[in-house]
Amino acid sequence: MKLNIVTYPDKILRQKSNEVEKFDEELHELLDAMYPFMMQTNGIGLAAIQVAHPKRVLIINIPDEEDEQSDENLIEMINPVITEKNGITTYQEGCLSVPTFYEDIERFEEVRVNYQDRFGNTKTLEANGLLSIAIQHEMDHLEGILFIDKLSYSRRKKFEKEYKKYQKELKLKK
Q1: How far apart are CA 103 and CA 59, in angstroms?
Q2: What pLDDT is recorded for position 170?
Q3: Mind giving me the DSSP string for 111-135?
Q4: Residues catalogued as catalytic
Q5: Where is the binding site for Fe cation, in residues?
């Protein structure tokens, strides 16, 4: 399965993703394609909508102390729902769908998430730190929300201006 990153301002990123009802070979193929793709693009998280599949599917792999991402740290979440949230933290976020831009975003410090694995088994995960932030970031994608939507009005206007300039430069390089 060939995947490509959908980038802002593509309208597909604004779609709400559909609940997964079939935990079948098609879902497994998508998950199996998403992981190496995310690793090639230096991501730590990827929602299916970012590769033009509007399903409530996301994957996360947080680097360890040596900044390595090992296969056994991969988390696959299907139909995730946050059931608890605590504390507030700020983290400089980036996004594969909004390349080259990073902004300080406020998130919950800790979350508890119920989700299903690739076989439909129900799981619960308590997360804090970067894992908590990544889960919230990827779950926002499932709702059609981008991290830039959380910026103040003035910062968002500045971002739009910078992003248009970035897109023009990109076109000139092609």
Answers
A1: 22
A2: 83
A3: EEEEEE-TTS-EEEEEEEHHHHHHH
A4: 138
A5: 95, 137, 141
